[in-house]
Every structure is written in structure tokens, then in C-alpha cells.
# Entry
Amino acid sequence: LYTFLIIGIFAITNVNAFMTGVKPEKDGSVAMEIISGVIHTAPPGSNVNVGYGILKNNTDKDIILKSFRSPVFDNTEAHTMEYSDSGTAKMRHLEELKIPANSELSLESGGLHLMFMGMRRDIKVGEEIMIISRDDHEVRYMLIMKVIDPRSSSHSHDMH
# Structure
């Protein structure tokens, strides 16, 4: 009985490292977080969702994010909007996002944002979806984003 109790306690205390499969030195933990992270439900017939929020770097070193993944989507990418002198907009894929030391980077409509493509299952308003990002040193950061319907009258356009 005591053996099972000791094994149970050991399993509980190490569940995070076991579940994530991340070596402690590769776990970004709270070094970076997303504030008010949201994923907009897609319009009917679309399989592409967009994500916004504020990426906050809680360290004294720049964090350069190189990839984003989610178990809910086939592909997740950082994009920006570029505007020509004539007023036309073009979306461009970014290979990395730099969050300056002790600073924030806003992901917002008309600017930097995350694109979620190839939904693997239906998502529901209010659901929280995990996004795993890796930096240029292969450190992982877990970001939680909430699904909202931007077309709903009950949704406030204020992200805070």
C-alpha cells in the first residue's frame, strides 16, 4: 500500500513534465504569456480562424518565437498586414515574432495576428485552446486562447 502511495505522489508531482515531455530547461513556463488571447470563430463555410491578444515577455531578454502549433488545427502561422500607398492590403506570413525584453507585442486586427488553418474538429464559443510556441532556442511556451464569436452581440470588442 505504501509503495502505491509513494508512486502516486511521485506521479502527481511530476505529471507536468511527463505530460508535456519537455525537459525543464526547455519549458518557458511564465517567461512569456498571452493576455486576453482570443480565437475568432470562422464565418460559415470557412476553415480559417484568426487569433489576437497581447504576447508579454516577462524576462530581461528578447524572445523570438519561431513556430506555433495546436492540436486543434493543422497549421498555425504568424501573419502581418502590409498596406500599399494605394490602400490595398496584403497578408504576409512571418517566419518569427520578436517580443522585446520586459515588453509586449500586440496581435490585433489589421496588424500582427495568428492564423489557424485546417480545423481538425469543431470549436465552441468559450472553449480554451492551447497553442504551443517555440522560440529560437527550442524553448516551449504554452499559450491559452479563448474561442469567441466576434459577430455575437454579447461579445465586447474590448479585448480586456
